[in-house]
Amino acid sequence: MQTAPTSGDDESAESPVPLATMPLRSSRASGLATLKQTGNGRWHDWRWQMSNRIRTAAQLQKFIPALADTSEFEKVIAKYPMAITPYYASLIREANLSDPVFQMAVPQTRELWDPPFLAEDPLEEEEDMPVRGLVHRYPDRALLIATTTCATYCRHCTRKRVAGTRECSISAARMQAVTAYLADHPEITDVIISGGDPLTMSTAAIEHILSSLRSVPSIEVIRIGTRAPVTLPQRITDELVAVLRRYQPVWVNTHFNHPNELTEEAGNACARLVDAGIPVSNQTVLLRGINDNPQLMEQLCRGLVRMRVRPYYLFQCDLVRGVEHLRTPLSRGIEIMEYLRGRLSGLAIPTFVVDAPHGGGKIPVLPSYIVTTSPTHTVLRNFEGMLINYPDPVIAPEPSKCHLRMSAAPGVWELAVGKTSMIVPENTHRHSRRDGRATERLSRSGDPI
Ligand code: SF4
Questions:
Q1: What would the mean pLDDT of 412-419 be, rounded to a whole number?
Q2: Rounded to the nearest whole angstrom, what is the distance from the C-alpha of residue 324 to the centroid of ligand 1?
């Protein structure tokens, strides 16, 4: 990665508005109104948002006076930079760790505490870079780190080693090397433009990357990984959307983590993309004390689907330095997935994955729905705890040869050999509803419908 003009720099030469004029309000609505006034009509301009990011401990303290001592922040920011757009800062409702946006945006000294098993690059992306900035891990896919700049530096970022350490974007020469590598590897059909956040770059720079990728005939799909709809929704302009449309098929993967991020502005940004035929999906990271709650995750997934954003992945937090305080046990994610299944349609349920250390790639992790298998049957469990036998498509041995004596209450073994087809737990809502309807049907037998 070589130094190039910071994304957006060519279009934003404005000096920052003093953040001292941005008071925190406990209510998001009133805070937003005040912040909008300080933008002097430019609140909706993404370049203004980028130019006025909160970058220093002093600016943060002016924005959040309750943070009396920010000396500790200096140490954290020196290692892991801070940037918060005024828009994203306006989503902070409480200036403390009970607030999910505060936790995701404001540095914590806990970032400096690392157990020894953590790594700067746990996914070993650097080991899979045939060309600097291009990660080629899976046979048919590659990931391009197009910039190190983000609108807001997430405290949970898995690329803390890159994001914001030196804000720069890919050079033309590097892009040429990337394009040459892709042309030499026609097995790669899908490229993810990532970073940093590629949508912090100027529209012209984005178009240059898109057209370079499209010059490689074997590239079928381009994906863009961006948090812009979440932290900088103003960036999804008509001009940008028109450019993305020109290079279809283009998919956008975004990164909402909490229902508080599902604002009207975010919804409008996603709608502009979807209306233009650009599918938007979402990758959530499971974060301790932020979204590791089954009901909250349900709320997030429902909200995303309402915004026409498909919940795609729920990521277990990587073993990355600086993020340990936000990592949950794996069992928490499994518990959340158990809760979601049966309550949400499949469309709204993300796949829970661990991006394995040592470059092992994504491994889906599920609650166990297979109770046992036999040569003839598989015993499955549904979300209610109902056990069902699923017979394999072969002639099963005669059940009589099993010398089975049925007990009054069949167990899993009876299911596995096909002696019974299901075991239903008592008092499930669904079966109570069914029983009620059966009684009703009996009472009106003879009715045509
Ligand atoms: S936007 Fe993405 S790359 Fe940037 S800090 Fe957040 S998670 Fe990391």
A1: 82
A2: 16
Distance 150 CA to ligand 1 centre (A): 6
Examine the residue annotation and report whether 141 is marked as an active-site residue of this protein. yes
Please name each of the domains of the chain with its CATH number.
9-107 (no CATH), 126-364 (3.20.20.70), 370-443 (no CATH)
What's the gap between Cα 345 and its chain centre? 18
The answer on pLDDT for 38 being more than 90 is: no
Q: Are 50 and 79 in contact (CB under 8 A)?
A: no
What digits encode the pLDDT tens for the residues 21-36? 333 334 344 444 555 6
- The active-site residue out of 62, 87, 154, 317 is 154
Higher pLDDT, 9 or 288: 288
Nearest-atom index, ligand 1, CA of 151? 1
Quote the ligand 1 centre to 263 CA distance (angstroms): 19
- Kindly state if the Cβ of 163 falls inside 6 Å of ligand 1: yes
Residue 446 gets the label, from left (phi > 0), alpha (psi -120 to 50) or beta, of left
Q: How far apart are the C-alpha atoms of 387 and 212, rounded to whole Å?
A: 53
In this prediction, residue 431 has a pLDDT band, given cuts at 50, 70 and 90, of confident
Is residue 69 part of the annotated active site? The answer reads no
Average pLDDT over residues 184-192: 98
Location of structure tokens 């010059």: 215
- With 0-12 / 13-18 / 19 or more C-beta atoms within 10 angstroms meaning exposed / middle / buried, residue 438 is exposed
- What are the phi and psi torsion angles at 224 (to 5°)? -120, 125
Q: With helix as H, strand as E and coil as C, how does 114-128 read?
A: CCCCCECCCCCCHHH
**Mind listing the pLDDT tens digit for each residue in 287-316?**
999 999 999 999 999 999 999 999 999 999
Q: Residue 10 — very low, low, confident or very high, per pLDDT cuts 50/70/90?
A: very low
d(CA 33, CA 45): 16
- DSSP codes, 22-62: ----SSHHHHHHHHHHHTTT-TT-HHHHHHT-B-SHHHHHH
Does 153 contact ligand 1 (Cβ within 6 A)? yes
- pTM above threshold 0.70: yes
